[in-house]
Amino acid sequence: FQPKALAGKRVVVTAGPTFEALDPIRGITNHSSGKMGFAIARAAREAGADVTLVAGPVSLGTPRGVARVDVKSARQMLDATLAAVPAADIFVATAAVADWRPDTQADQKIKKDGSGRAPTVSFTENPDILLTVAQSERARQGALFCVGFAAESHDLVTHAKAKRERKGIPLLVGNIGPLTFGQDDNQMLLVDAQGVRELPRASKLTLARQLIHEIAQRLP
Ligand code: C5P
């Protein structure tokens, strides 16, 4: 009898895009489908973990046995994540969080004023959820294993290594281009303190299971 790789462990996953409102009708978002994060949540659950999935606006069913918290904005995603990570052993940040949000959110729909002039939107930087969690006491003590993702258009290895160090995390997963938004398969680069390893092209669920295996092996 082999115990499941993550039996007794608690995992928090962020997934999908965020939506940053401009007014009650409109907002800024991106094309993240959430598929990779949902696959990781499913794979973690299959491996015996207790899983919380913090999901931005996506149209995906919740994997069986996974506790899902739906959010819209980056700040809501941060709050839901910070509520869940104090009990967690593993945090996997797959969400494509908007880097900026509009400075202000109008209470009512912004209307054309007849002048022919377009409104101006200015932006404020959003919190970096992964960085915030990675800098927490428990993460720095090694009690919370943090995993980040990187999608880059060029020089993936260089950017992925730099990103891992900047975020101060033990493991970073690079999505090997072209951008995989919405697709069912992916190809990954695993970057850790030892170096770089490739997981060949496969379905997101297959890769998620391999990634969970890699994470389980690295736990203290
Ligand atoms: O810095 P960059 O956005 O390229 O890093 C990507 C990684 O950081 C992903 O794991 C993403 O989920 C996470 N991230 C985050 N909060 C942000 C921006 C990125 O958690 N505001």
UniProtKB/TrEMBL annotation:
Binds 1 FMN per subunit. The keyword Lipid biosynthesis does not apply. It catalyses: N-[(R)-4-phosphopantothenoyl]-L-cysteine + H(+) = (R)-4'-phosphopantetheine + CO2; (R)-4'-phosphopantothenate + L-cysteine + CTP = N-[(R)-4-phosphopantothenoyl]-L-cysteine + CMP + diphosphate + H(+). Residues 6-217 form the DNA/pantothenate metabolism flavoprotein C-terminal domain. GO terms for cellular component: phosphopantothenoylcysteine decarboxylase complex. CTP binds at residues 99, 109, 127-130, 149, 163, 167. Keywords: Decarboxylase, Flavoprotein, FMN, Ligase, Lyase, Magnesium, Metal-binding, Multifunctional enzyme. GO terms for molecular function: FMN binding; metal ion binding; phosphopantothenate--cysteine ligase activity; phosphopantothenoylcysteine decarboxylase activity. Coiled coil: none annotated. Its cofactor is Mg(2+); FMN. Pathway: Cofactor biosynthesis; coenzyme A biosynthesis; CoA from (R)-pantothenate: step 2/5; Cofactor biosynthesis; coenzyme A biosynthesis; CoA from (R)-pantothenate: step 3/5. In the N-terminal section; belongs to the HFCD (homo-oligomeric flavin containing Cys decarboxylase) superfamily. In the C-terminal section; belongs to the PPC synthetase family. Catalyzes two sequential steps in the biosynthesis of coenzyme A. In the first step cysteine is conjugated to 4'-phosphopantothenate to form 4-phosphopantothenoylcysteine. In the second step the latter compound is decarboxylated to form 4'-phosphopantotheine. This is Coenzyme A biosynthesis bifunctional protein CoaBC. The lineage of its organism: Bacteria, Pseudomonadati, Pseudomonadota, Betaproteobacteria, Burkholderiales. The chain holds residues 184 to 403 of 403 of the full protein.
